């Protein structure tokens, strides 16, 4: 496992130096701009808009970062031939895949926490009172990013094209927010081919209904422990399945 830990540390340092801080700076600019736009609203409306814009901005920037970074995570090293140097060390290919993935998720988790701290600071300046839904929202964003990252890494090895990988990952991310609607369409369809296609999309795309904290936010409730448990089980299961397929594809790939 020493080889995998070295890959994790190398990946974490690489992303922190080149990407995470740029993402945080961009988020700061979004907060500054949105604050200027909504400054004319009433206090309660200001806080509501700042919360929505901030949480949405955190998730969107993290999503763009994880797709862009993960899609190029292995492909860039294969094209530059630098992967030969890594694989010349005593490290299994699956350890390389898992190490690169974990290092990327850790780096972006750090970025999400930094953006969250910046967001909370701006809310406190506007006399916001701390509410328990906020850390739940951050945890959900981290879970989504972990799931999407594993999917993007898998797709990058299937398509071997940066543009197509980003497009397909983004499409499946969108589909993940309509899992219940896809299930309804499959039940209503009388065409076996359409039903099968919808079923495939429904199960390949991530099911983000497990991360829907807004039902509890609107009701000012804290999600029960079982809700967190199912979200954790789903996230880990999806990530393990995606990384297992990615490792298998990478083991068969000639590099």
Number of helices: 10
Major sheet: size, sense and barrel closure? none
Average pLDDT confidence is 80
The count of strands amounts to 0
How far is the first residue's CA from the last residue's CA? 22 Å
Structural classification: mainly alpha
Compute the gyration radius: what is it?
20 Å
Shape: globular
Run of helices and strands: HHHHHHHHHH
**Beta-strand residue fraction:** under 5%
| Low-pLDDT stretches | none
- Percentage of helical residues? over 70%
List keywords for this structure.
globular; 255 residues; mainly alpha; single chain; 82% helix; 10 helices
Word description of this protein:
This protein has 255 residues and is mainly alpha-helical. The protein is built from 10 helices and no strands. 32% of the residues are buried.
Give a brief outline of the structure:
By secondary structure, the chain is mostly helical.
Helices, strands, pairings?
Elements: H1 2-37, H2 43-80, H3 83-87, H4 93-125, H5 133-159, H6 162-176, H7 179-188, H8 192-204, H9 214-218, H10 225-252
Helix pairs in contact: 1-2, 1-4, 2-4, 2-5, 2-6, 4-5, 4-10, 5-6, 5-10, 7-8
């Amino acid at each position: 496992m020493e080889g995998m830990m070295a890959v994790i540390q190398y990946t974490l340092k690489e992303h922190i130096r080149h990407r995470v801080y740029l993402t945080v700076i961009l988020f700061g600019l979004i907060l500054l701009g949105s604050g200027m736009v909504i400054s004319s609203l009433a206090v309660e409306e200001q806080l509501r808009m700042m919360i929505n814009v901030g949480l949405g901005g955190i998730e969107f920037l993290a999503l763009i970062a994880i797709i862009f970074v993960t899609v190029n995570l292995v492909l860039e090293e294969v094209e530059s031939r630098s992967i030969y140097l890594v694989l010349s060390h005593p490290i299994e290919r699956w350890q390389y895949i898992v190490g690169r993935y974990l290092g990327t998720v850790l780096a972006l988790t750090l970025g999400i926490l930094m953006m969250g701290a910046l967001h909370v600071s701006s809310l406190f300046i506007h006399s916001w009172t701390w509410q328990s839904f906020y850390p739940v929202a951050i945890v959900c964003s981290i879970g989504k990013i972990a799931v999407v990252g594993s999917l993007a890494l898998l797709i990058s090895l299937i398509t071997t094209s940066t543009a197509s990988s980003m497009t397909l990952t983004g499409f499946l991310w969108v589909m993940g927010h309509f899992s219940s609607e896809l299930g309804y369409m499959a039940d209503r369809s009388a065409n076996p081919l359409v039903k099968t296609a919808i079923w495939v999309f429904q199960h390949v795309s991530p099911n983000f209904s497990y991360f829907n904290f807004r039902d509890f936010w609107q009701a000012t409730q804290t999600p029960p422990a079982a809700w967190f448990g199912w979200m954790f089980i789903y996230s880990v299961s999806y990530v393990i399945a995606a990384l297992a397929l990615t490792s298998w594809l990478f083991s068969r790939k000639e590099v």
